[in-house]
Amino acid sequence: MTSAVQIRNLEKLYPLAGGVVAALRGVSFEVPQGDFVSIMGPSGSGKSTLLNLLGCLDRPTAGEYFLGGENVAEMSDDQLAEVRATRLGFVFQSFNLLSALTVVENIELPLYYSGRLNRDSRARCHSLAKRVGLGDRLDHRPAQLSGGQQQRVAIARSLVNDPRFMLADEPTGNLDSATTLEILQLLKELNDEGRTIVLVTHEPEVAALTKRTILLRDGLVQSDELRTPGAPR
Length: 233
Ligand code: ADP
Ligand code: MG
Description:
The chain is of the alpha/beta class.
């Protein structure tokens, strides 16, 4: 089976006035389809940089990235935008919802941006809102929702193009522990549907609910461990 993701010797250098920052210094791993990976590591170890590369939001300085078997380096900026819009779903720590829009309008937003709004969009967004447990909050605005509910909206928005690969940067970083578990349960259900998920977290309780943890340190993979299903935590 084709891997969801294969990266080899990925490097990312940020040239700054005071010198170059090497955020990633040769990272290699493979993510099979259907995996649920947590990326951990101290602040500054390169987690967000790696997630941005995996999400085709940025290009590596060196190294290879195959997404679903395709070489990302050979894609034009337009092709990358198409990949982001149709094959990837993004979830962020700060939810990134638009405060003036309702729940349903926020979920619809990627369709609007990518010119994919059509007569079926509204019904599809309603069912996604229901899917994440917000069927009775369709016309609420973000300020009228709890943090956990806002993250549910963001997850529904990330699903609007039915991506097979989801990326989440500290998705529970702003949530209390009970809400964190609810959001992880939702992500686990999406993984059970066959979606590949890579999430960044600094919380061991979150990593414990994923199938595998990759630990970064100073821009390198320090460890990469599978979690045995059912093993005591
Ligand atoms: P993490 O998410 O693990 O905290 P980051 O990937 O955000 O780490 O950052 C890794 C390193 O790269 C840090 O030293 C950070 O200061 C640096 N860095 C990140 N983004 C940029 C940027 N846009 N320009 C310059 N340096 C950056
Ligand atoms: Mg980060």
